[in-house]
Design goal:
Structural class: mainly alpha
Low-confidence stretches: none
Helix content: 40-55%
Distance between the termini: 26 Å
Radius of gyration: 14 Å
Order of helices and strands: HHH
Shape: globular
Largest sheet: none
């Protein structure tokens, strides 16, 4: 039986089963810009980070045919 408490916590935090957390360090101005872009685009900073990861991986020949949601 799945742990419903853990699942509820993940849902509240916007995380998915099996996802791994890594910290991202950047200048406060950069983080504020990402937050602002996310707001203007009607998305989340997390979605923008995944988009950036996808672009970086595709540039290096990985993740062809994948979307940021697949990461």
């Amino acid at each position: 039986m799945p742990n419903t408490v853990a699942a509820s916590r993940r849902a509240a935090k916007g995380t998915r089963e099996g996802d791994v957390h890594r910290s991202l360090y950047a200048k406060p101005e950069t983080m504020e810009l990402v937050r602002r872009i996310a707001f203007e685009d009607g998305t989340t900073a997390q979605a923008l980070y995944r988009e950036g990861l996808l672009l970086m991986l595709q540039k290096r020949g990985h993740c062809a045919g994948m979307s940021a949601d697949d990461l």
